[in-house]
Amino acid sequence: MKVLVLHTLAPESTDPGRSTEEFDLLSSAECVASELPGAAVCGVRGEIREILDALDHHAPDVVFNLCEAPLGKPQFEAHAAGLLEWAGVRFTGSGSETLALCRRKDLTKAVLAGAGVRVPRAGVFPCIVKPAAEDGSAFLHADSVCADEGEAARAVSRLRGPAVVEEFLPGREFAVSLWGRTDPEYVSIGETIFLGEVRLNTYAGKWDTEHEEYRNTPLVYNGEIDGALLDAVAGAAKGAWRATGIRGYARIDVRLGPDGLPCVLDVNPNPALNPEVGVHRAAEEIGWSWEEFVKCQVNWAL
After folding, report:
1. Can you name the CATH fold of 102-121+169-300?
2. pTM of the prediction?
3. What are the CA-CA distances from residue 87 to residues 19, 39, 80, 214, 257 (Å)?
């Protein structure tokens, strides 16, 4: 089977407040290809003709899709998958409709609520203000948590696009990695520990390894999660998977509300596959080898 690991290249510059390193997917692509003898790795800016030329040149049976930001724009994430669908090429991960849906937090939240998946409430304070159409915790800062309507209005005014304003949940937070062909057969749950004054995963806490918020938000897999809570958190994440039509793999963020019940914060159907972090680490934490995970994704490609 000929596999092409297709990834987007990091742009030379990006929007203020974001780092180009966030979009560097070469290490993820090489990590995937290392488990697939004979696989080709191709980095693209994301232009249509460029992707079609790569398909013509490599003639793959399967594309391992790591296109997260064509032309350096995360909002084009679904376009690459749509092009692969149009070309009739099998590829790993979720389809274009799911990727497009989950780019919009407001629309995703409505779909989840309609499917009976618990989500944070609107009109409740304290609240959190976040961009509706960004990912990677972009433009999330400590002051994104607002105590009243005035603070929330000021936070919304700082954003350039549509915003989601929802209840800030006080409970424990879990990173739930799931994988399977079309159903979430496998689950690995890590817990984010908030130290000091940190209350949420900010952009600096996710991407700036020298920042205090990065050091104060470790993700652990050996924490104490009792059986009932584990089942409830996994159930919420699986409900989100099915409601949004995910396939292959995903990371879903879940946090406990004031009543101790889990709510889904975010659905990421195209999470990073960097070595030793994210889904890569999550799979290994429950006894999967990276080779096993990668080869399953290729076999599950649609």
Report:
1. D-amino Acid Aminotransferase; Chain A, domain 1 (3.30.470)
2. 0.96
3. 32, 20, 11, 41, 44
